[in-house]
Design goal:
Length: 382
Amino acid sequence: MQQVYLDNAATTRVRPSVIDKMQETLSLQYGNPSSTHAFGRPAKTSIERARKSIAKTLNAHPSEIIFTSGGTEADNMILRGAVRDLGVKTIITSRVEHHAVLHTVEELAKDYSINIEYVDLDQSGSPDLEHLERLLKFNDATTLISLMHINNEIGNMIDIDAVCRLAKEYGALMHSDTVQSIGHYHWDVQKTPVDFMTAAAHKFHGPKGIGFAYIRKNSRLNPLIFGGAQERGLRAGTEPLHNIVGLEEAFVLAYEKLEEEHRYIEGLKNYFIDKLKKEIPDATFNGACSDPEKSTYTIANVCLPFNEQQSLILLFHLDLKGIACSKGSACQSGSDQGSHVLNEILPEEELKKPSLRFSFSIYNTKEEIDYVIGVLKEFASN
């Protein structure tokens, strides 16, 4: 049976050279990076090399890169630190953020009685920047904006430069969950003056369990995890050297090959959209994912014209056919609540139909897309 993996927004296949680097590190560099002897020093050097490599690509300072277990921990570190340490009294976010942000700000509202404001969404599900400006204009409390650069379910991409300009104009701090963005788009934190960003290696062909927070210098954040002085004192615990080395290798390769791989993946997505429109013309696209100017090149979220009975077995059927995609984000597996993103942007009638997220990578082919759409077309006719 053919196996087709189109769930790359959930996680990606690890590049072979990343695996090789990690295996080499596990075999040869087993010293504790905090040890000062001859076994620990090379491990510490490898970590700092990775930090410098990432910082150089982002036009950041190495001290601004803090390694974490992934995007969720990094989001928690930043949001909790902003309230606890920086005196943030208002957080402006949207209702289509990743739950790593939404659930964290909900808990912060309970724990610290801060004010949470939700920016309105436009017709495609992107934050309305005019409403964002109004929220900033009529708020005199210390404020943090938290808006993701690329939505992990529908692929919408916000104008991050415009949001940063508004934050600067009104004296607000700016945090962006950039987990779907880092490794896929160029970043220059001097030109795009975001205060905080987050990344996860497994979204750009690196290992799971490792990511980083970008925290602008002199932010005055304190640790979320206590116990040691690792990571500039911001994250205690012995560093997972093999994962950091894997992150570095995946990150460097992502940016070395960015233009070439962007063109290839964008071609696959466009091919998918064109073929789906031809074979299942009543299918529609959620959010702005069919607009290349307003969405990422890696994600297509499709509402399919299937009846209720078909909807109940669609994902099971695709799985039996060897096709991996997603009904929502992978973080919602097992939930019967449906997608909180689609619940915000789709009318009731559309919510009754099945919506699927297909996400693409360098390891996919047009032949795989032909197979997937053939399976969907056959399913539609039954």
